[in-house]
Write a structure and sequence with these properties.
Largest sheet: 4 strands, mixed
Low-confidence stretches: 4-19
Strand order of the largest sheet: 1-2-3-4
CATH architecture: Roll
Helix content: 40-55%
Strand content: 15-25%
Number of domains: 1
Number of helices: 6
Number of strands: 4
Distance between the termini: 66 Å
CATH topology: Diaminopimelate Epimerase, Chain A, domain 1
Shape: globular
Radius of gyration: 19 Å
Order of helices and strands: HEHEHEEHHH
Mean pLDDT: 89
């Protein structure tokens, strides 16, 4: 009986020690660019703005994760709910995870990435302030805005500015961030 109990404990220990298939968040937390689709400048801007939101109000965290995929079947490899939980996004379930799926753009002479799809996971306590249909519309309008010219950095930054502005205005009754994407493009 003792041998059986020892074997069960050993098996459970080994199973629990197996490496998780979910990636770990980067130290900067707010941008996890596993697809290497964004420039360092964009990552720093997102981290700066999103950290400020969280440190000032102590609840909402907006986190971006990018993955490189070969085809749409690869999207199923990433469970957005489990990723949201493992990253522990937002205090009191006030987090938003935006996953961006990129593919390599082989038509360009430069190495570039093309956005193929996105997924979102929003915390239950944040959803009343930005319901899924409204969130989806906000993402569609800003991620695929015609002035982004399919440049991932412009796509993500415009979206980030608008998400921040939504929360600043609707939750905290603050003045929205004033931004100019042409200036941002020049800074890139």
């Amino acid at each position: 009986m003792k041998k059986l109990l020892s074997l069960v404990i050993l098996t459970l220990t080994l199973v629990s020690c197996q490496k998780s298939s979910l990636p770990k968040p980067y130290n900067q937390f707010y941008v996890n660019d596993y697809a290497d689709a964004l420039m360092t400048y964009t990552e720093r801007e997102i981290v700066s703005y999103n950290r400020y939101l969280y440190e000032t109000y102590g609840e909402i965290q907006i986190v971006y994760v990018t993955f490189l995929i070969n085809d749409e079947k690869d999207i199923d490899k990433y469970d957005k709910t489990e990723l949201f939980r493992s990253f522990k996004i937002g205090k009191n379930d006030m987090g938003l995870l935006v996953i961006l799926y990129f593919s390599k753009d082989d038509t360009s002479e430069y190495e570039s990435k093309q956005l193929e799809a996105y997924a979102i996971e929003i915390g239950y306590n944040l959803e009343p302030y930005l319901p899924i249909p409204s969130l989806s519309n906000l993402i569609e309008e800003n991620l695929y805005h015609e002035d982004n010219y399919d440049i991932p950095d412009l796509m993500v930054m415009r979206l980030n500015y608008e998400l921040l502005n939504h929360f600043y205005v609707n939750l905290y009754e603050e003045t929205p961030i004033v931004y100019d994407m042409d200036v941002y493009f020049d800074e890139l």
